[in-house]
User: Fold these one by one.
Assistant:
Number 1:
Amino acid sequence: MDSFFVITSLLKIVGILFVVILPMVSYAVYAERRVSAFIQDRMGPNRVGPAGLFQPIADMFKLLLKEDFTPRAANTFYYWLAPCLAVMPAIITIAVVPFGSTLFGVPMIIADVNVGILFVFAIASLGVYGIVIGGWASNSKYPFLGGIRSSAQMLSYELSLGLAVIPVFLLVGNLRLTSVVRYQIEHGWFIAPFVGDWMNPWKWLLAIPMIISFLVFLIAIFAETNRLPFDLPEAEQELAGGYNIEYSSMKFALYFLGEYAAMITGSAITVTLFFGGWHFPGIPDGSHGWIFGLMNIAVFFAKVAIMIFIFMWVRWTLPRFRWDQLMRLGWLFFFEIALVNIFIVAGIMAFHQS
Amino acid sequence: MPPFLFWVFALMTLIFGAAVVLNRNPVASALSLVVSFLGLSALFVSLDAYFVGIIQVLVYAGAVMVLFLFIIMLLNLQAEERHRINWLASAGGLGVALILLIQVVFTIRHFEAARQTFPALSASTIDDVRNIGALLFRNYNLPLQIVGILVLVATIGVVLLSKREPR
Amino acid sequence: MAMTVPRPKLNWRERLYLPAIVAGLAITFKHFKNMLFGHTKVTMEYPEQKPDSRLPDHYRGAPALVRDEDGRVRCVACQLCEFICPPRAIKIIPGEIASTDHFARVEKYPEQFDIDMIRCIFCGMCEEVCPEQAIFLRKDYAITGFTRAEMVHHKEKLLEIGGVIHGVVLK
């Protein structure tokens, strides 16, 4: 525990949280509104500042100045605790994601633990508590239904989520997320066999189960982050907003923040696992100069931004699933597909090595 | 990990473990258990056992307790009613706990291996995930397979039990 | 009577839903792209662009009083509009025209004519009922104010909106 490690870690935590993630969250809300507007042939918020770019700041002030109301029937302690629990897991998860190569010799990852992906799943699975407790503590019917739905949905889709990434780690042979990126730099991105040595036929063969794996993972991430088409915990038409009806002011904003932070974390993990993380063909890593280190970080967050756009694109295209359809899809379809996919990848690998 | 953090997490585990029993509200009890699990997993991580620590959170805090909460909320359990304390039963329970404590202390004091200081683990060389995997699939492969079949049988049983009668 | 809606039988390709999802994504992306590059123009950005020139002839905006070619207020304070107004937004206090006046035969004029624009529902019944063609619904739609008092249009304001009308208007 030398002081250099402590100082760089603190710098990384503060930098990634306050310079990148929180602004990204607030601008994701802005982007969501603009993208949805464009898809529906509208303009979206374009008044505050140039092209409406200061809208998130105005939104923040609006939410801060609203009355913070606690219903009398609510269980006050848990009612206050729940929004915090909704934000924390999403932000903690980013700690193990490598968001760049190196900058001045410092690895651009906050904690390179050897159980990386398990850490991500473990912390992400705690995210359900914020919703469930919020739904329960509000002591009201619709939030309660939202909380119940959320817990069942997250449990069901965690299975597919976990199984979908196993093929990736079968290939990498290590649970570290930095090794995943390292492997993809050497062998090409998992779902893009044309990156790297594209002459290798095994890569093209492996790309088929990898794309299936990616699709299952993406769909499970949609379900885990409560995004449409799986936003049943907050279905506006059925539950009038779900678990966050009774919340107002900054507590509501925290739920909102948590949802978007979870989306950003989900995108970051997807990018790390399937899109080569911070790697882009032609850009060397940070050991060749700090300018390349910065470029790696920029590439990573550009990829994350594209993923977030896909999240929004899907949200404004597909209608919501029915509750029993959601459960059947999770348990009878994606679970099996992910399971079979593991066997296919294992078979290809065994055949390749022999 | 500094020893002061050990005390923090150990106290957290114990206090919230006690809160599980002392709380009258079932939801509060379940949440206390979650916090207790988190403290326990922090203790595992402090021993460089990342895998066990994380699995503790993933399985118990993330999945099992969510199911517990789900059931508690679905059954709409209310806070337990206060009833008179049965002094004889509590004395008996206290006695058993005390005897167990004495037994544990006695064993530790007379067990040579428990008193020596172990050499510190070198954190960088340990890949505990790989070690556990190798141990499970090489040395304990047969028990693992048997456990797997047991779980499979249990799963099939659950599916059969929960399946509706065809009409 | 309960009725079962027949559901279409889907073949395996349709049951996979993937082509349908991809087609949907393509449609939304096309809309997004066209909007991003400014090819589609559906909405109007209001304070900069105004719909004034495109308002239809029968548009019902703010009610207003008019003068005739002699500069006389056409209203004769008959109070029919006050009587018919569904939200009771109109309040008229009639006054006698002095017998020495050139228009003495008209007998009455509105001493006060207030329309409470908070109450007005732009129904146009006042215009419909007016025997003298003195009140018209104009094309003003942006009626704003900071206080309730500001939102009451007095006679001067109404005449200012209304302007002058020559002769008889065929409605």
Number 2:
Amino acid sequence: MNDYSKFNKNENSVGIVKKKQAAFSDKIKLESGMLFGPISIAYETYGTLNSDKSNAILILHALTGDSHVAGYYNEKDIKPGWWEFMVGPRKGVDTDKYFIICSNIIGGCMGSTGPGSINPETSGPYATKFPLVTLGDMVTAQKKLIEYLGIEKLLAVVGGSLGGMQALAWSVKYPKTVLSAILLATTARHSALAIAFNEVSRQAIMADPSWNNGHYYDKKKPNAGLAVARMIGHITYLSDESMRKKFGRKLQDKNNFSFNFNTDFQVENYLHYQGKKFVERFDANSFLYITKAADYFDLAKEYGKNSLVMAFSKVLAKFLVISFTSDWLYPTYQSKLMVKAMKKSGLDVSFCEIKADWGHDAFLLPSERFIEMIKNFLKNTYREI
Amino acid sequence: MRYDLEIIASWIEENSKVLGLGCGEGDILYFLKNKKNSAITGIEIDESKVAVCIEKGLSVLQGDINEEVLDYPPNSFDYVILSRTLQQIYNPLELINSILKIGKKAIVSFPNFSHWTIRTQLMFLGRAPVSNQLPSEWYNTPNIRVITIKDFRKFARKLNLHILKETAINTQNNDRTGKIVKLFANIRGSYGIFLIEKNKASRRFI
């Protein structure tokens, strides 16, 4: 995810927000059949739920995101939530009109139960004793949160990348709850290419001696491995075009090569910086768990006996699917495969491939067309219910 | 709305399921959705036009009509509209067949190549005709098929289609206004509009 904290917090922002947590003492049934609990989920809400509870929108975040989708935590906070340009008063997802919930995922490390949480049975961190939760399990946990908030119907579930995969799973698992879904730069299952990048990232973490089979919480953390994993991720979020425009072959603070293995190129410096920043906020085990869940996710296999059309057969939601031309992680053809299956299932679906040079990351960057499309899709869906 | 689209809209019954191929910015689909309570879907290849449609609240897919029509189950729509696009289609036979598989009826409109202005240009100037309806030069026109109203009737017979309605129109003011042409339609009409379906009799034998 990029740093796009160029927005002035005084103008048109949802303002000061608070991270909340919902705890559930009873166990949830995982897709593996195992019962797991207790769990807690971090979330944030903005706007006001109307009297007939018909204006709730659930936003789902990408791999390393969190529930902080918009606004600031306090007056001194300089960095807004990760989708500040999209979520706020009169913005694409309008906090004046809708009640917006952004939920974190179990398995993560941003306030929900994950491998770094304390296992009540041992009083130590779960580490790799944490169960391998699937995307469907993450959604099961989110459904508990929505019920806890007293919401029966979601006007829309919205997500990009891994968030889009959660939104897909939501629409299939809970067809009566989800009235519409906005799927951005996402896929119904990972390609070999996506799995390959994830596996290299995981290997980087597990090859770090500090990883210690996942038991590092009271020791030195596998930061070197996690930083490399993040660097690999960043390459997949960009594109040849965006890297050429952003860095080219420009050198970092020098005019000639150093003729050693120090940083020469700007692109190297950028990746190092991203890696270094990432390890301050993310848990290596969570990275392993979430990428594995993403690789396992296969909507057709899990919910449609290997047929996407069958997976969508009970779905009632209408869809807006958006892909980006330069996204090579989840290329347009993967969105089109979903759209094709939706058409065959007789679903109401709109699809647009937006021209953008910024690769997979494009859904995190402001563009007027992108914002207007989402704004009006929500407006029309809200009017039609 | 364009005059030819007004005619097409008038042919569509209320509460129908309608697919608009090459729907542009969705003018007719917007009308049908809001005035005739139609359940509409559009297909358009141009990204910016698709965006405009979605912003209007229309369900529109970005894609190539020749491919997109293949995904729908049979008889998914009451009407499939192919307005002013047939002349740009590489394989009209295949497309019309696909359309009448997924739609119970189809409405097809096209610029009439035997309009008198076109005939006279070819006859007296000896040049590839350029008209209001077909404004491009031979080297940059997207229109790769020349169709006349008479030719379309013959085409329908060949495909064993039933022509339920046909109208020739003559338009003015950038097609905003127009008139229905009754006499000498193949000479005086600038556009032909046809409502077609598969021949019921032949369907029975399939």
